[in-house]
Amino acid sequence: MVRRRLTPGAVIDGFTLGEVVHKGGMAMLLSVTHPDHDLPMLMKVPLLFEGEDPAAIVGFEMEQMILPRLKGPHVPRFIATAGFDAQPYIVMEQVDGVSADTLLPRCPLPVEEIAAFGAAVATALADLHAQQVVHLDIKPANILLRPDGSAVLIDFGLSRHDRLPDLMQEEFRLPYGSAPYMAPEQVLGERGDPHSDLFALGAVLYQLTTGVWAFDNEQRLPAMKRRLWRDPEPPRRRRPDCPPWLQEVILRCLEVDPARRHPTAAQLAFDLRHPDQVMLTPRAQKLARDGLAAVLKRRFNPDPMAPRPAGASAQLAAAPIIAVAIELPAASGALDEAMRRAVERIMATVPEARVACLNVLRTSLLSIDTTLDAAGENRHVQRLVELRHWAAPLRLEEERLTFHVLEALSPAAAILEYAEANRVDHLILGARPHSMQRRLLGSVSGEVAAWAPCSVTVVRAKA
Amino acid sequence: MRIALFTDIHGNRQALAACLEHAARQGAERHVFLGDIVGYGGDPAWCVAQVMREVAAGAVALQGNHDAAIAAGIAGLNGVAAAAIEWTRSILSPAARTFLAELPLLHEEEDRLYVHADASNPGAWRYVMDAEDARRSMDATSARITLCGHVHSPRLYGLSDTAKLTVFRPPANEPIPLLARRRWLAVLGAVGQPRDGDPAACYGLLDTTEPSLTWVRVPYDVAGAACAIRAAGLPEQLATRLALGR
User: Fold this and answer.
1) Which ranges carry the Protein kinase domain (chain A) (predicted)?
2) Percent of chain A at pLDDT exceeding 70
3) Which chain B residues are closer than 8 Å to A166 by Cβ?
């Protein structure tokens, strides 16, 4: 194997090396330039020593396979790679952003900042999981924050791609990952569940909220296994001003059984963006760890974990976010009924789906807006009440339903923006009957169907 | 370079024609036939003639156990397979029979070994069914990539330089990187009689520059192939299993 010296100014395959930006245990990063690529770039080079850790090589091989297949704003753009026959490297975009590591000295952070950070990372995870990849090493050092607050995930050396061989699985008996953030099922060797990333994010949020790790940095397997039965101190015990909803979200992420965590990263992001809509359970109020009896039961007689559909994509399909745009007052009772039936059908077939009921409260440029109606009632609150009334016949569990009144000039634009921001999987809306109004204003459902980032069902009452 | 790899055609004209056409559209510059051109299917003469033309034009073709049985006899084959071989022998031209009997068992080029079954003893027609079989086959060659068939169900075995063996069930139509530091044994799916539950024909597309291997799935006229089997008077189960991919 030929090894060239990685000194500044050296050229490898057209890439001119610059400074060493970072040197970690398994790889180092150098800034590079190339006449054909006009963007800031990093070259990642695996560190291979005498008595080298085989994980460094296998991790590099995994990243070499996975990174070129990823796209979108939440991963660094892939530029080039070379294998081990000469100098191995991966060249990628140098993301304009700071490591989430830089947040740690400021812990505990303000609650709003934690929620925004969590929503940004959960959104990035939703995007990654949709590309059939589970990250499996989510921790502050592997999260970059762009100036606009969005998150970029880096380092896919421990990741698992649904459609590629998992070299890590066969190579090592011990689980690889970062002990303070590793999900219990990952400790046991399970490497295909996207919920493992939600656990790790929960552990990061715990740290940002309380300033301490939820689980210690003990690398030995018996010590890591302790998280299967011993729960961490509730955040509210360490930080009394932690709101119940945030504790609810964090402790749900940290559930031992993956099936008890949020069904998807998109649903977790949804909760972090709508704190007032988080359904509070006894988790929210806990001020002490579980008692000895519960811990002993988990240790020696644990409940069996429900089998999960394998792989990231199968689980996403089972837990979509459905948004229903409801007109108030209803155009017709028949349309109302038809819309509810459409929702019922979807909810019956996908048990982990959740429904967001939307209504657009039209504002006007011409008049000075007031949220109070003629009778002095708050229109916003009134609409929420009407939305709940609309959904009541669906008889859905409360944690599967949320209600949102959007104030906007254009209903179509508001619905589209909502679907985009909340990673909605399926939009349902009613078609207005033919009318003069529709001819003049155009059809909301038509515009939404044309531009939506997801599937759209337009419901029409049969004449 | 892109190399198209066809194995276990088994006299299925419709499946072979669909795969050849698909491979041409993908820009495959070289064809390799990994054996079992005949047996089970209703159009062995067409399939052998097609492969003979390809070989004359530079393609590589290897012998499979069904091809060998035309001359060597049906020992080791089950009743249904044996019946198909007897019928096939009766309709093939002497030239076609000679072609099948003279096919080689192995072919090596660059870092690749082509073989129908287990490379450690190719004439014994052992199946590569698990990690142990794969290791035995890889131990018998210095080639970095072994490509074989015989099993009718896609698998990829990888061997690292620490002698760890990975087993992977490759999904359809996904280029799987054959990383340079590892040695690989790829079991291709069958062109003419898939048995992994997907009735679509399967062939391999090897990109030697990446390098990567894709298990390509091609829908084809299953009903037409089943018709040919019935018209030949072969056992009915050979016709029905095509639609099930079993």
Assistant:
1) 15-277
2) 90
3) 166, 168
Tokens (6 digits) for A23: 């040197």
The predicted structure's pLDDT at residue A153: 98
- What is the CA angle B27-B31-B37, rounded to 5? 135
Q: Do A170 and B180 touch (CB under 8 A)?
A: no
Q: Is B166 on the interface with A (CB under 8 A)?
A: yes
For residues A78-87, one letter each, b for 16 or more C-beta atoms within 10 angstroms of the residue's C-beta and e for the rest, the string is bbbbbbbeeb
pLDDT digits (tens, 9 = 90+) for B28-61: 999 999 999 999 999 999 999 999 999 999 999 9
Residues A411-430: tens digit of each pLDDT: 999 999 999 988 999 999 99
Please state, in angstroms and as integers, the Cα–Cα distance from residue A254 to each residue in A266, A304, B17, following that order: 17, 17, 55
On chain A, the residues whose CB falls within 8 A of the CB of B181 are 57, 61, 83-84
Asked if the model's pLDDT at residue A445 lies above 80, the reply is yes
Sheet of strand A15-23, all strands in order from the earlier edge strand to the far edge: A11-12, A15-23, A27-34, A37-46, A89-93, A78-82
Mutating which of B156, B174, B181 best tests the A interface, going by the most A Cβ atoms within 10 A? Answer: B181
Q: Which of A54, A85, A167 sits opposite B166 (nearest CB)?
A: A167
Please report the ipTM that was assigned to this predicted complex. Answer: 0.82
Of residues B162 and A233, the one with the higher pLDDT is A233
User: What is residue A91's predicted lDDT score, i.e. its pLDDT?
Assistant: 97
Look up residue B8 and give its amino acid: D
- Higher pLDDT residue, B61 or A175? B61
Task: Let me know: does A451 contact A415? Beta carbons within 8 Å.
Answer: no
Residues 6+ apart with CB under 8 A from A393: A340
The answer to whether B162 contacts chain A (CB < 8 Å) is yes
Neighbours of A133 (CB within 10 A): 27
As a whole number of angstroms, the distance between CA A26 and CA A49 comes to 10
CA distance A446 to B125: 61
Q: What is the rounded distance in angstroms from the CA atom of residue B32 to the CA atom of residue B59? A: 6
Cα distance between residue A316 and residue B67, in whole Å: 47
pLDDT, mean over chain A? 89
In chain A, residues 130-189 whose CB comes closer than 8 Å to chain B: 162-167, 169-171
- Across the interface, do B156 and A84 touch by the CB < 8 Å criterion? no
- CATH at B48: 3.60.21.10
Interface of A with B in 73-132 (CB under 8 A): 83-85
Query: What is the per-residue pLDDT across A326-356, written as a single tens digit (0 to 9) for each?
Result: 988 877 888 989 999 999 998 888 878 999 9
Distance from C-alpha of B210 to C-alpha of A329, rounded to nearest angstrom: 60
Residue range(s) defining the domain that contains residue B161:
2-244
Helix (H, G, I), strand (E, B) or coil at B187: strand
Which domains, ranges and CATH numbers included, belong to chain A?
11-93 (3.30.200.20), 98-304+311-315 (1.10.510.10), 320-459 (3.40.50.620)
Tell me whether B180 touches chain A (CB under 8 Å): yes
Among B179, B209, B215, which would you mutate to test the A interface (most chain A Cβ atoms within 10 Å of its Cβ)? B179
Domain count, chain B: 1
Among residues A436, A405, A239, A228, the alpha carbon closest in space to that of A327 is found at: A405
